[in-house]
Amino acid sequence: MSAAGGSAARWGQEQRAATRKGLWRRLTAALGVNPAARRADARAADCDAGAVGEQRTAALLRPLEEAGWLVLHDRSIPGARSANADHVGVSPGAQVFLVESKLWSAKWPVYERGGTLWHGNADRSQSVRSVLYETDLVARAVGAPVQPVIVMHNAPVPGKGFFVRGVPVVPAGRLVEVLVGNDGPQDPVSASALARRAAAVLLPH
User: Fold this and answer.
1) What is the rounded (10 degree) CA torsion for 129, 132, 137, 141?
2) What CATH number is given for 59-201 in this structure?
3) Strand duo 162-164 + 167-171: pairing
4) Residue 71 and residue 89: Cα distance in Å, rounded?
5) Which of 19, 72, 89, 153 could bond to 37 as cystine, CB 3.0-4.6 Å?
């Protein structure tokens, strides 16, 4: 089973390494006069934060695994060129959830305005578009409806969370409560078949 945050961490390392090939690039990067390295370092820092967020979410989801959920981390999505599923959970009630981890700065809150996700003054609508795209592809792959959830680490979330374009955005402390609360009656046969299907088609990224 792939580890949570593994592909994000690898991508960050590759970004840094690509701009430091050769002695001259390494030297200019060390001196801070390599613009490509600075840009790569900024992208890599985002990847590192993403990896940490995914690892934190994986820790939150561990009790669900112990309670009979199938939880898959960092999975490739059939039909997606590069996107991956941070976490996919199949519940005992045969419900499928796609959990997208976000670790954003605690300096600014996240909120919905005009159907758009905001982090302070930053428009984060691309994050919602991405999770909806991934949800559609995962649903096709597993042959069942999929409910997306964005779990927010660090950045304050008002109240108990909110919806953006039908996607719940919840603080990390409420993730398990939200998932369990949206499960259905236990259906061991359907859940087992769905879990096998998900594990077979959503391969490690």
Assistant:
1) 160
2) 3.40.1350
3) antiparallel
4) 4
5) 19
Segments of the chain assigned E as strands: 70-76, 84-90, 96-104, 110-113, 116-119, 122-123, 146-154, 162-164, 167-171
pTM: 0.80
* Residue 52 pLDDT level (bands cut at 50, 70, 90): confident
Q: Are 88 and 147 in contact (CB under 8 A)?
A: no
Q: Where are the domains of the chain?
A: 59-201
SS3 state of residue 3:
coil
**Could you report the per-residue pLDDT of 121-142, keeping only the tens digit for each?**
999 999 999 999 999 999 999 9
CB 103 within 8 A of CB 83: no
Q: Which two tokens stand for residue 77?
A: 């999505």
Q: How many residues are listed for the chain in this entry?
A: 205
Which element (helix H / strand E) includes 127?
A: helix 125-142
Cα separation, 144 vs 197, in Å, equals: 10
